[in-house]
Amino acid sequence: MPSPTSGKIPQHVAIIMDGNGRWAKSRGLPRLEGHRRGVETVRTVVDAARAIGIRYITLYAFSVENWKRPPDEISGLMGLLDYFLKRELDNLIKNRVRLLTIGRTSELPANVQRELNRVIEATKDFKEWTLVLALNYGSRTEVADAARDYAAAVQAGRENLADASWDNFSRYLYTAAIPEPDLLIRTSGEQRVSNFLLLQCAYAEMVFTPVTWPDFGQADLQAAVDEYGRRERRFGLTTEQIQSGAK
Ligand code: FPP
């Protein structure tokens, strides 16, 4: 669990990048053009997050539900992912950013998996900054996968049912090696969580901004962080307990 004393800068920010389609439509452009602009925002936001001191940034890039989109949009998104990974490798290395993924990445196209593995391998030793891409991700799928793996571990005698707890179970989630998000941002005016990190965001502060993802920039990230800094995180405690340093 994040600590009540985690300070004013969130350690981990998770973002639902929404509004690419509407950004494009409002300009009479194809939806893919919105996603293309969205990729540019990814670089801007990763750089801005480092400048602010945010150590982990998780981006919801493709959900398990996104397979229901038109085939040309899906292949366009996969093409953009491949392009992004090829283009960003040098930049990630230069800036010492580690890439991780969460989601059923084994179901992604082979070329995307190859690029992902290449970038993950090349950046695996960086400790300062982490970019997590949620790809073919959904919280319910994640819980089903974790429950399956946990049950298999019980069957194999590696886990004991009597010790079942959140701490023990959460080690089977895709996010086992990643701290919980402190701040969840969703762009483009929708106020939903859409099957994204539902358990991990149990105590996250949420900020919803009307700005569409292609228009989201450094100042918008800073505004969300400022809003986070004004909130009091209580984790079930009272204000008085928080002020007296209780945990
Ligand atoms: C939501 O906008 C956005 C997505 C489903 C995909 C996000 C993908 C990118 C920004 C590009 C690829 C990502 C990386 C990391 C290279 P929407 O299409 O649902 O927008 P709408 O609600 O306005 O239609």
Q: Summed up, what is this model?
A:
The chain contains eight helices and six strands. The chain has 247 residues and is α/β, with parallel strands linked by helices.
CATH class: Alpha Beta
Instruction: Please name the CATH architecture.
Output: 3-Layer(aba) Sandwich
* Percent of residues in β-strands: 5-15%
Low-confidence stretches: 1-6
Separate helix tally: 8
Biggest sheet character: 6 strands, parallel
Q: How far apart are the first and last residues' alpha carbons, in Å?
A: 11 Å
Predict the CATH topology.
Undecaprenyl pyrophosphate synthetase
Q: Can you write the helix and strand succession as a string?
A: EHHEHEHEHHEEHH
- The outline comes out as globular
Placed side by side, the strands forming the largest sheet appear as 3-4-2-1-5-6
**Radius of gyration over C-alpha positions, nearest whole angstrom:** 19 Å
Q: What structural category characterises the helix and strand content?
A: alpha/beta
Helix content: 40-55%
Number of strands: 6
Which molecules are bound in this entry?
A: farnesyl diphosphate
The H-level CATH homologous superfamily, spelled out, is: Decaprenyl diphosphate synthase-like
Quaternary state reads single chain
Instruction: Summarize model confidence as the mean pLDDT.
Output: 95
Q: How many domain regions?
A: 1
